[in-house]
Every structure is written in structure tokens, then in C-alpha cells.
Amino acid sequence: MDDSKLPPLAPGTLYLVATPIGNLEDITLRALRTLKECDIVAAEDTRRARQLLTYYQISKPTVSCHRFNEAKRSEEIIQRLRGGEIIALVSDAGSPGISDPGERVVRAAVHAGLRVESVPGPCALVAALTASGLPTDELHFKGFLPHKSGQRLKALLRLRDYFGTLVLYESPYRIEKLLGELSETHRHRLVVIGRELTKRFEEYLRGTPRKLSELLKNRRIRGEIVVLVSGEDVEEDAGDDEAETPLGAAD
Ligand code: SAM
Hints:
By secondary structure, the protein is α/β, with parallel strands linked by helices. It is 32% helix and 23% strand. Strand 6 (139-144), helix 6 and strand 7 (165-170) form a beta-alpha-beta unit.
């Protein structure tokens, strides 16, 4: 591609650059160019960002922007943008701002009248949703539920009557707890667990909360997971034929 025909990055712009959620091939040409041509990369974890940059043979100064310093760092980023710098914001994986730092600094930049552009790419929510087989036209993204049992149940109860697909991020250590909770709040719904998306052991597990709980009694689930819940009830034996649909070898 002739780079001279591409529009140059705009000075004073904050670029939100999506990075791979596992498979390092999942990065756009525009993301790579933005990382190459920006003045500085603001990263959730500068060490991880440097590993990523090194992999793509990009050398660029980095500054940290994580959930503990995002408020303070936002002010510095705004100052730099006002001075005309081009800043690329990356999180550890996927799209910045989606259950990751980014929202605050974007809001600060928007309030300051500065230009913000998304350089879209990988996002576990979209990857899981599109391959889940559940409706994609109406969805509620909850991200991570709170850790405390009462608050989790309350959040799930509030979402019980939602008619679209519910999407949650969850830790593999809490999946059994979540399935137990869903057995109470979303008992007859179809649950799809998308695991290790874009990676070697990517797989989808499908069934009612009770069926999946039974399945997980015999195997421990590892790696990263997205949990999707259908907005409508299904037959109790739904997902029986395809309770487990591994796309790679079991680990
Ligand atoms: N910003 C990221 C995105 O765009 O998806 C999400 C970051 S959040 C801190 C991390 C959570 O995303 C994981 O706990 C998991 O629920 C989900 N996730 C990230 N990568 C994943 C993958 N490869 N497979 C399944 N879930 C993934």
C-alpha cells in the first residue's frame, strides 16, 4: 500500500488503539501505523505495551495510564494534546475503555474540546457475541459483575427481564459461582461461554446454567472467558448436542 496516500495522523489527537486479545495477528494496519507515527503511547501497563511494540518492531516512548492513575494522568495527557502531541492509548488487550482504562481520559479530552479517534479492532465482547449464535441485534454489556455475592445477585436480578443478549466478562475462578447464580436468576436461558478466543484452545460451551455447571464438575475451566446469556428461555435440554464444541485440542 502506498503510505503517501493515507491521511497523516492529526496533531493534538488522542487515538484509541485496539490491540490483540490473544492472537498477535489480530492488529490492523491502521493500528500499527498509529503506533509507529504517534508521539507517545499511553499504556495500561508499559511493560506489556513495550513487548507488543517490540513484537511489531516499533520503538516509541510509553507512559502509564492505568486505573489507579487515570484521573491524574488524564490531566497530563490533555496538556500534551493541547500542545499538539499525537497520543495513542492502548490497554493490555483489546479495545481501550471496554472494562479497561480509557473512559476517563476520553471524557476529559472530549470535555476539553480535543479530537478523539477510535482505531477499532479486537474486542472480546464482539468476538464472543458474533460467534455465540445468540441474537446480536439487542445486547446488554455488563462487563465484570461486582465481587460481593449480594451485589452480584442484585445486578443479575435487575437484568432478568432484559430481552436481548446479556454479555459478561468473568474470571475462570468465579465461573462456577456465576453459573450457580444464573441457575437462580436465568434458569431457563441458554448460556454460551466463549473461552480463549482467538487463541489455540478457543472453544464455546453451550447449555443452560445447570447443564454447564454439571459439565464443569468434571473439568476445570482455565484461561479467559466471556459469558453470554440468551434473552429468551430455551428447552431444558438445549445445547445438549453441542454442550462442548472445542475448536482446538483440550488443554
Ligand atoms: N478491553 C478488553 C476487550 O476489548 O475485550 C477487555 C479487557 S478485560 C480487563 C479482560 C476480560 O476480557 C477477561 O477477563 C475476559 O473476560 C475478556 N477477554 C479478554 N480476552 C479474551 C479472550 N481471548 N477470550 C475470552 N475472553 C477474553
